[in-house]
User: Fold this.
Amino acid sequence: MVRWVVELSEFDIRYEPRGPIKGQVYADFVVELSSTDAHQEEANFRWVLYVDGSSNQQGSGVGVILEGPNGLLIEQALRFAFKASNNQAEYEALIAGMLLAKEMGARSLVAKSDSLLVTGPVTGEYQATDPQMDAYLGYVQILKGYFAVFELVHVPREQNARANLLAKLASSGKGGRQRKVI
Assistant:
């Protein structure tokens, strides 16, 4: 470098070394670009929720399956410490699944249920006539507001078999966590 300075000085050209370039600035820029794409990709990802409720002589419970980005799969079997009708269990399943999706940071959610008594009122096809079911419906409507995109789809029981098995497991008393009414 010194040799070049001497040679260039003959022609009235002065060499001024460039100031240090902070490598961290470039590293931060690359990280910022890549994380923005990852966040944007995750924000556009549609989470899929399968729910089913079950009630019998042994008890009540729900099965919840949430599929997220990067192969994330969460399965829950929740047993209730309170008596619930089958319709109440179906709504409880949807609510538990929506709360789980919200907790996981889902912004776009497709929920799938085999219960017309839940999907009909939520989508507006049917009207809830029972005051208790109307209260459940109101809570579901509030939870819908937490998602940028929310869709509830009725599916045949065969397409909801895993959630159905989890719900039956929970209501049989052989597995799952207990959940009390708050």
Notes: Confidence is low (pLDDT under 50) at residues 176-182. The radius of gyration is 28 Å. The beta strands are 47-55, 60-67, 73-80, 108-113, 149-154, 177-179. DSSP finds six helices and six strands in the chain.
